Amino acid sequence: MASTPSPAIGFLSSISVPLLSAIIGGVLALLFVTDYLRRKRSEVASIAQPLDAKLEDQKPSRPPPPASKKSHLRSQHHHAADKDQIKKHHPLDVNTLKGHGDAVTALCFSSDGRNLATVCGDGVVRIFRIDDASSKSFKLLRLNLPAGAHPTGIAFSEGETSVVVAAQTLSGSSLYMYADVSAPKQQEKIPHPEIKWEQHKVHDRKSVLTLVGASATYGSGDGSTILASCSEGTDIKLWHGKSGKELGTVDTNQLKNNMATISPNGRFLAAAAFTADVKVWEIIYSKDGSVKEVLNVMQLKGHKSAVTCLCFTPSSEQIITASKDGSIRVWNINVRYHLDEDPKTLKVFSIPLHDAKGSTLHYDHFSISHDGKILAATSGSILQWLCADTGKVLDTADKSHEGDITGIAWAPQLIRTGGKPSLVLATAGSDKKVKLWLAPEQHSP
C-alpha cells in the first residue's frame, strides 16, 4: 500500500526551483551587506578616534581651580607691572611734576635753584617751589596769561622774584613781566602777581623761539638781568629785565633762527641758525652799567651743516655746539678778536646717537651743569648725559617722555634730594609733564 506524502513535502514540491534560488540569494546578499556595514563602522571609528584625540590635544588646557587661576592672574598682573615699571622708570628719574593741561612749551630755574617756572599750552604759568626734588608734593603758584596768549618762552628776571613770559597772540609776539612770583614756602594766601610791564609785536607777527636771561656781571655791567628773545625769523632782541626797555636788535641774516642764548656773565650773545656758522655778539656796557651797544665780534666756522643747538660753559669762555653734520664742537671764544684773533676749536666729538638704520640723529636741546662737567642733550624723546670733557655717554633715557622733549634746564645750584644735595636736571615734554632727573655718576676715563 503506497504511503501518503507529508504536507511540508507537498509545499516544497509546489515551490519552483527558481523562486527558491532567489530567496537563498537574497538572504546571502543581506548577510553580506550587514557584514560590510559593520566593518565600515569599525573602520570609521578607528579613524575618528585618533582625529578626536588630536583635536582634544589642540584644545586649550582646562583652567586651574579658582584659587590657582587668581594666583596666575595676579602673577600676570605683577609681571606686566614690572615690565611697565622697567619701561617708564629710569634710575635717574626722581620725580614728575603733573597737572599741566597741555604740552609744556618751556621751563627755567631761578638763580637759587629753588623755583622752577613752566609755561604750557593751556595759557598758565606755573611756579613750583623745589625744596626737595624727591618730594611727593610741591608748593605751587599759578598765573593766568591774558586771554588768547599762547606762551612759548619764560625766563626769570631779577633773581627769583620775577618772570618774563613770551607769548604769541593774534597781533604778534608779546612779552609780559610778572613781579613777586616766588612760590609760597607755606600754604598761604598771597596777592595775585600783576603784570609790571609788557611789550607787544616785539618781532612783528613772528613767534619767539627762545627767551633767556643772564646777569650783567662782566666788566662795568650793573648785575641787572639782560634778556634775549629769539624770533623764528632772523632777528634777536635784547631787553632790560626789570624795566622792559629794549636794549638792542641784531640780525643773523641766515634765513631763519634755531635758537639764541646769552653767556652766564652777560657778555656774549650767540645764535644757532639755518646755516653752519654760529655768530657771536658782544654786549658792550657803559660806565654806568647800562648797555651801550651790541657788536658782531666773531663767527664759529667749522661745521658742515646747520647748527641745531648750543650753550655756553659756566665760565662764559667756551661755547658747545651740535650740528646736523653729526658732530659736537667745543670752541674757545676767549680770544683777542679786536686783533683779528679767531676763535679756536678745542675738541670735536661725534654725536653718539643713532636710529635703527644706523644714521646719526641730531640734538634738539643742550644744557650744561653748573659745575661744567655734564652736558645734557635731547633728540625727540631721548635724553642723554655726556661727559663735557670727553664726549663719552654717561647714561641714556630712550623714552624719557611720552612725546618730544620741549625744553631742558639744569638747576644752577645743588638741590636737596632725599636729604642729599644733588645736581638736578628738569625736562619738559609735549606729554604735559615736567620731570626731574639726577645726574649720572661720573667715572674717570
From TrEMBL:
Record-linked InterPro entries: WD40/YVTN_repeat-like_dom_sf (IPR015943), WD40_repeat_CS (IPR019775), WD40_repeat_dom_sf (IPR036322), WD40_rpt (IPR001680)
Positions of transmembrane segments: 12-33
WD repeats: 97-138, 300-334
Listed Basic residues bias regions: 69-78
Annotated keywords: Membrane, Repeat, Transmembrane, Transmembrane helix, WD repeat
Top-level taxon of origin: Eukaryota
Signal peptide: none
SUPFAM superfamilies: WD40 repeat-like
Pfam family, one: WD40
Chain positions covered by the region annotation Disordered: 51-89
Keyword field contains Transmembrane: yes
Name the record gives this protein: Transducin beta-like protein 2
Organism: Dioscorea zingiberensis
